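Anyone else keep sequences and structure tokens together like this?

Example one:
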Amino acid sequence: MNFSSINIIESETDSLYLSSRNDDWNTREGDVRQKILKMTQQKQNISSIYRDCLRSMIHEFSDIVIFAENETASDVKVIHANQERAIAKIHQENNIILPIISISQVVSENADNRRRYKSLLIHEKVWNEETQRATRVLSLAPRAITIQYDIYIWSKYKSDLDQISEQIRLKFNPDLIVNVNSTVTSNAYLNEESDSGSSIAPDKEERLLQKSFRVILETYIDSPRFLVTKTGKITEFNAEVSFLKPNNKTKPSN
């Protein structure tokens, strides 16, 4: 075989490769990807991920209690407020019973070390209780983000502050699994903690103790999800999820 024939074979191979259907996504998976991409662009992509994350964070700390000297448990109220607003509510409203926990979102940023390619298809199987069958659900790759939260504890007594701090630390071992919604399971990490707030109160004012925790939540902004039927038809997929408040009123044995 001479060099001219080799060149002809190589050129034919190149032409075959260049005409491959995979390069144009002109395959079954490529067609589905293009349809989902088009349907995603046509939707108003508001996933309310920040609201859902905040709601889930409040839920995760809603089972914290304190035990009095007579060993009766009392729930610790969890509110959404930054430091300044929480202080104002404590001093202005007479119906707030200490201790309380306040949670506020500080900042969010992209997590490039966890990101995926935009064109990547995510394949899922979701069980349908009505039809008693598993359904196929597809979506584009989600956007990875990191959200920082400040968790403040407000208390009159150091013993209550210690009880709440202990329960918060026990939740991170080393991370806290946060179920944001039916599709996103996130990991929260305890980054740092600090004591702030004076233990010495001015005349005619009650003492107010404060402790803060910085929590880092690693989560994703979900792309719209679509249901693929047996006939190949692609339709919008909706799912709902609800949370139950846990019970933490059983004091551990000594």
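And example two:
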Amino acid sequence: MKRQEDTLQHLRAMLEETTRARNLTANGQAIPAIRALLRAKHLGKGVIAALLGNCLSVTTAQADENSLPKLMELIGFAQQSLCPACRSKVGKKWKEIENV
């Protein structure tokens, strides 16, 4: 439950930054708007990493001997679609989940 609350909190913060950027743009303040969007992007990457880590953790827990090759294929695909920073975040989240 704590992870869900953290994820929701990050999504709300991302929405706030996006709304702030929209308001700043409407007032002609482009540079602060870009900064707000960059903060929103950073928050979004963290949320994606957390969600992907949780998804892979659940899938791994449910895997059996026959589904492991498919799981490894999915994990490889997921990793290829992430930037290096996000890969690192996913790895950290996955390790946190395994240690719980």
